[in-house]
Amino acid sequence: MRIGIVCPYTWNVPGGVQQHIRDLAEALIGFGHHVSVITPADDDADLPPYAVSAGRAVPVPYNGSVARLAFGFLSASRVRRWIHEGRFDVLHVHEPAAPSLGLLACWAADGPIVGTFHASYERSRVLSATAPILRSALEKITGRIAVSEAARTTLVEHLGGDAVLIPNGVATARYASAEPLPGWPGGGALGFLGRMDEPRKGLQVLLRAFEILGRERPELRLLVAGPGDTADVLARVPAELRSRVVVLGLVSEEDKVRAYHSVDVFVAPNIGGESFGIVLTEAMSAGAPILASDIEAFDRVLRGGRAGALFPAGDVGALAAAAGALLDDPARRARLSAEARAAVRAYDWSSVARDVVRVYETVTVDAGVVIAADREG
Amino acid sequence: MPDWIVDAVLSIALAIVLALYVSWRATRLDRLHVRVETARAALDAALVRRVAVTLELAASRLLDPATSLLLAAAAQRARTADADTREFAESDLSRALRAAVDQPGFAAGLDGRGDVRAELESAAAKVGYARNFYNDAVAQARTARRALLVRALRLAGRAPLPGFFEIDDAPPGR
């Protein structure tokens, strides 16, 4: 199948949408499809062979923040030419409601168009007010995908209509193997990854459990990584245990993977507010034995406790007891690790891309190829 | 210039703008109707495919005879249903597939024929996608046809008002 993918944001700037498109494109190419991605990019950007630049994106205020977007007649004519020359069986437009390449592509194309909606807003006056302008372009989308329930709700409330839910994938292979950080796990190690100063991530619960565990087990150490103030975290640990809490702060992607492989038990003590648990799926991909709070999202991802142990959210004593039991039972840790690696396959990009291909196959029945529209609107 | 010429020129300009606007609205409505038809064809194709895969599974001798009979009967009813009974028959097929696939030992019973299961899973998922896209197209076409201008000028012509397709399409194996 010839697939044209439209990326609305600058390729070389890190972002969730760009990462999604990169992983999807590579998974589709892996299936043997022909993929071309058009994207805004800086002039000196190093683009992969499947990506085409539509020129530079311009920083402009949009929806309460400054976004780098590609718009205007020059971008529109580049998109139109790319559509015309691509002879795609299906056009896959990302974030078509943003004033960037996605919207321009809907405008310039006729034929089977799939749209993926990423953003979710509590309430957006901008989105509601602009809905009539967007309507005629969005009406051309024949199959709509939302990446989360929140994104789907945003779509339904602001723009009307419905979408099928296909969540983000995890590039499990990226986490599968790595050298542990030097000196880890040593004589027993617990790990945490996430915003250190965000109470809902539950680091405070783990720190208090470590007070109990650290006193019982003189060898045990705690590895903490994520954005936030290092000194602030250490100040919350009693002085005699402080040398055994190692706070890495914000780490590189590579060190993050190594951190997952550096601990005996990875702890996800979140109190709530997590809809999917991307950190959890990364830890599962790395095969880390997991101990997580029993919030709904984690319970589902961990298959009700089979792919990782669960404890009552916020319960310091239960966390300490469960972590202690896991540290003393290497056989159970090995079982949980194997189960986690198997369970996370359902969230792998190859599964997600397979569902996306099903959407392509559905919208291309009797639909012909994508052509450049003879008149806009 | 006499006033009547100015008035005439303005009225003609206004008439042209109005005509262009009405023509654009008609084109848009036409495009929505085409989208409904394309989505309907995709939905029919997905439903037919699901019936075919179910019949193939029922005839494969991979399952016990009772399950095979159950699936074949549900697929046959879906295939022969008329417009009035189709939604019920397709819902029943969804339920029969769930009852068959979700029974303990189903995957083991297929005995290495993972391809049959993958095909069934794919066919069931596509029914869900196709129905979502079809109903989305229908909703937009119906909204567009409710507009005052469209009703007043009968821009929809004789195109029938498209109806939603409502079935239980929850896939098996979830």
Automatic annotation (TrEMBL), chain A:
Signal peptide range = none
Listed GO MF terms: hexosyltransferase activity
Q: Which UniProt keywords apply?
A: Glycosyltransferase, Transferase
* Pfam families given in the database record: Glyco_trans_1_4, Glyco_transf_4
Fetch the InterPro entries from UniProt.
Glyco_trans_4-like_N, Glycosyltransferase_grp1
Mind telling me which CDD domains this protein's record contains?
GT4_PimA-like (cd03801)
Q: What SUPFAM superfamilies is this protein classified in?
A: UDP-Glycosyltransferase/glycogen phosphorylase
Limits of the Glycosyltransferase subfamily 4-like N-terminal domain: 14-174
Q: What stretch or stretches form a coiled coil here?
A: none
Biological process, per Gene Ontology? carbohydrate derivative biosynthetic process
Check the record and name the PANTHER family matching this protein: SULFOQUINOVOSYL TRANSFERASE SQD2
Q: By what name is this protein known?
A: Glycosyltransferase
Q: Give the organism, scientific name.
A: Actinomadura rayongensis
Output the lineage of the source organism: Bacteria, Bacillati, Actinomycetota, Actinomycetes, Streptosporangiales
Automatic annotation (TrEMBL), chain B:
Judging by the UniProt lineage, the source's domain of life is Bacteria
Entries under SUPFAM superfamilies matching the protein: LemA-like
Keyword match Membrane: yes
Among Gene3D superfamilies, the record links this protein to:
LemA-like domain (1.20.1440.20)
Supply the alphabetized keyword list: Membrane, Transmembrane, Transmembrane helix
| Keyword Membrane in record | yes
> Which residue ranges does UniProt annotate as crossing the membrane?
6-24
Q: Which InterPro entries match?
A: LemA-like_dom_sf (IPR023353)
Q: What is this protein called?
A: LemA family protein
Q: Which organism is it from?
A: Actinomadura rayongensis
